[in-house]
Amino acid sequence: MRGYLGSRLAQVLPTLFLVSIIVFGLQQLMPGDPALTIAGESAGDPQLVAQIRNELMLNRPIPVQYLHWLGDLLHGNLGYSWRLQEPVAALVAQKLPVTAQLAVMAFFFAVIIGVPMGILSAVKRNTAWDWLANGIGLFGLSIPTFWLGIVMILVVSVWLGWLPPSGYVPLAQNWVRSLATTVMPAFVLGNAIAAILMRHTRSAMLVALGQDYVRTARAKGLPERVVVLRHALRNALIPVVTLGGLQLGTLLSGAVLTEQVFSVPGFGKLVVDAVFNRDYPVIQGVVLVTALLYVVLNLLTDLLYLLINPRMRQG
Amino acid sequence: MSSVALVPSPPVAESPARVALRRFLTHRSAMLGLLLCLLFVVMAVAAPLISPVSPTATDWSAIRQPPSWAHWMGTDEIGRDELARVIFGARASLLAGVVSVLIAAVIGVPAGLAAGFARGKADAALSRIVDAMLAIPFLVLAIALAAFLGPNLRNAMIAIGITTAPIFMRVARGATMDVMTHDYIEAARAVGNRPWRVAVRHVMPNIFPPILVQGTLSIATSIIAEASLSFLGLGEQPPTPAWGSMLNAAQQFLTQAPWLAIFPGAAIFLTVLGFNLVGDGLRDALDPR
Q1: Percent of chain A having pLDDT more than 90?
Q2: Radius of gyration (Cα) for chain A, nearest Å?
């Protein structure tokens, strides 16, 4: 187990190093002179442009610029927002809890919808239930998150008036209003993951239901409910847990659009606002933190897999 | 005159490609998907012929009109016909879907083939690059790339293509490693074929099925990605219609003109559903396990 952990950690470091090169490389794609872009309306002032170029080391070779940027990064400095005039790290720290709340709720929706649907679909294979569950899964995979959000605002908020259409109230301030403002975006966000979880639970359950230990459990005369839930599901859930952890990327991608549609001031909204305002350091910072979160969560998922799978623990 | 022996010929075995084609053509949901895809492709190609009016023609006397016989899908905030815009909007979405996947395949397939074929250090290096790219969520990277490259459809397609490439690399690498274990590769090497010839003539055709499946499913995700980017103002620029940007504009008039939010979204959904159904059908046909 220690050897496995060591090799996983050894994989993470080069990945993070390459991520840093990709993120730094983004600013090289910018058309024209970055100093002129930053100067904006004052681009006509050559002194100011020269000062910006000097401060950002834009007149130095690219590898030197990268090393300087990496050095800052290792000291926790993600750069400075051109528009908000605040450190990017502070902005990220401020927005991350909002997205985390949304993500946890979205994951809750994904699990309570996706896993039972996958079980039902596998147990009732080739019946109307299976078709229905597969249809709902395909619907979830094909519907654009932002359109589902708009339709839900239209139906639930505008026509029925049940929930507020947008905004956000922190959990600590008023938990009831906080849930009211986040339940719809969380459902929308969880929808795509529910579809993925449903498909994987179904195939994992189909494999598990065909195993000898399930046949033995049935032969012992155990009720079907016990066979399915205690014997098949427990084993089928192992790969599903791993997959669940890997869905953070889908969750964060979805959060960008969902937060925009529902005006939730989280991580996704931060990057969209940065795109609108051409606030490139914020875009870079968000991409970097997202990748870091993804890598760390992946590692934690692997550890969880080790904990719940005794065969791997012994190996 | 020679006599012909009337011996019944042994039954000719159907080729795997024919078997897969027959399976695909009898797959009901795949056929439904194919029909949906064809519908939107015809719509995009024949847009000038089937559209009732120009998608950019404004009519100030018909602002935000609900669906009617004159305007089947209503009109938008400056009196443009929504049906015409939905029809022409198919062009940006389908173009982005296909071109992005081609870009991704052109980058990812040779890289994956090389990694799976050469193994060793080249494989390790390429795999680390793929890991790093996949560590950044798909849409976040696409948004960042499109934002830095500049907002237009061409850059959006490049951004989506680059972001999708690692998936193709993974699929091609896995398929190559599987194909390399077969006897015919050993035989091709044994008769003295050069490595590049083995890779191109013997490995490449045999990794095509999983790449075809991935390609179809990636068109679906690329269409959603393009719609997402144009929703954020990073795709096709106004006044050229794109389903994503139409939805963005519709958000402002949700209470007064809800139809503006329904039709472009339904078009994205049906197109993506079509490609997903075809992709699932192809996977079932090519890999019936």
Answers
A1: 40
A2: 24
Instruction: Record the pTM.
Output: 0.89
Partners of residue B287 in chain A, C-beta under 8 Å: none
The closest CB to that of B133, out of A22, A30, A280, belongs to: A22
Which of B 210-249 lie inside 8 A of A, CB atoms? 220, 224, 227-228, 231-234, 247
Q: Per residue, what are the HEC states of chain B?
A: CCCCCCCCCCCCCCCHHHHHHHHHHCCHHHHHHHHHHHHHHHHHHCHHHHCCCCCCCCCCCCCCCCCCCCCCCCECCCCCEHHHHHHHHHHHHHHHHHHHHHHHHHHHHHHHHHHHHHCHHHHHHHHHHHHHHHHCCHHHHHHHHHHHHCCCHHHHHHHHHHHHHHHHHHHHHHHHHHHCCCHHHHHHHHCCCCHHHHHHHHHHHHHHHHHHHHHHHHHHHHHHHHHHHHHCCCCCCCCCCCHHHHHHHHHHHCCCCCHHHHHHHHHHHHHHHHHHHHHHHHHHHHCCC
Q: Cis peptide leading into B52, omega within 30 of 0?
A: no
Contacts of A274 in chain B (CB under 8 A): 147
The band of B4, judged by pLDDT with boundaries at 50, 70 and 90, is low
- The tokens describing B269, both together, are 């959904």
Could you report the per-residue pLDDT of A232-253, keeping only the tens digit for each? 888 887 767 777 767 777 788 8
Nearest CB to A18: which of B128, B141, B150?
Answer: B128
Q: For A3-53, how does the pLDDT look when each residue is reduced to its tens digit (9 = 90+)?
A: 777 877 788 888 899 999 999 998 888 777 777 877 777 777 888 888 888
**B139 contacts chain A (CB < 8 A):** yes
| Residues 246-265 (A) with a CB less than 8 A from some CB of B | 248-250, 252-254, 256-257, 260-261
Structure tokens at B217: 């499913």
* pLDDT for res A91: 94
Q: Tell whether the model's pLDDT for residue B181 goes beyond 70.
A: yes
Model ipTM value: 0.88
